[in-house]
Amino acid sequence: MVTRAQIVEEARTWLGTPYRHQGRLKGVACDCAGLVIGVARALSLKAEDVEGYTRRADGSLAGHCDARMERIAPEHAQAGDVVLFHWNNSPVHLAILTGPDSIIHAFAINRFVCEHRIDEKWRRQIVRYYSIPGVE
Known about the structure:
single chain, 136 residues, alpha+beta
């Protein structure tokens, strides 16, 4: 079994990786889904990828997450779990919790993988929490 601490530790090795839509390579380029998939794969977890998605919100991300991860209640979310965010009422962004009030994610606006605090603005954008299968 993989621990939540291992998820966070591996995610932090991706810090500074440039953002690129559909990127999947640590240190080269990744997007938010690529970070989650890359971290899972680095720890030998089953991580089914989704390819060919657009940068425009089409509402499909929540369905992909529901099919591949276990949805959990907000009060049960812990470091190592995945957070789904919405922009303009459409679920479009993923991050990995690194603590109760912090995330790591490949963020297009920052142009790289970064870690920061979840402030109230970010908290209002949270749609769902997930645990990655195989993580205890």
